[in-house]
Amino acid sequence: MFLPINPNVIPDENDEKKVAEFEDWVKWMELHGVSLFYSQNGSLMANLPIKCTALTDDKMCGVFGTEDRPEMCKTYPQSGLDLDGIEGVCTFKFRKVERKVG
Predict the structure, then answer these.
(1) Where are the beta strands (DSSP E) in 1-74?
(2) What CA–CA distances, in Å, run from 73 to 5, 14, 67?
(3) pTM value?
(4) Which residues contact 71 (CB under 8 A, 6 or more apart)?
(5) Domain extents for the chain?
(6) Over residues 54-64, mean pLDDT
């Protein structure tokens, strides 16, 4: 699961106390299995290594097409950029479709 981090938690680099608190928070996150990374568009993201309970053994969505499927799952990912940096975790892939002209 990938979640954007509120940019307000990133301290001003001139505030040494807030920078130290932020670095301590990052250490805590990493010790609990949460990795932080910057996406291609510069947003700070958190990777929560939590397997979706609706995934079937063949990694398909078990609630696809039902009212139990969250809206977030219906709209994510919207582009290949949403998958930047998570290729080793996420099984979703975009296929290039070639259009015939004429």
Answers:
(1) 2-4, 35-38, 44-47
(2) 18, 39, 12
(3) 0.49
(4) none
(5) 2-83
(6) 84
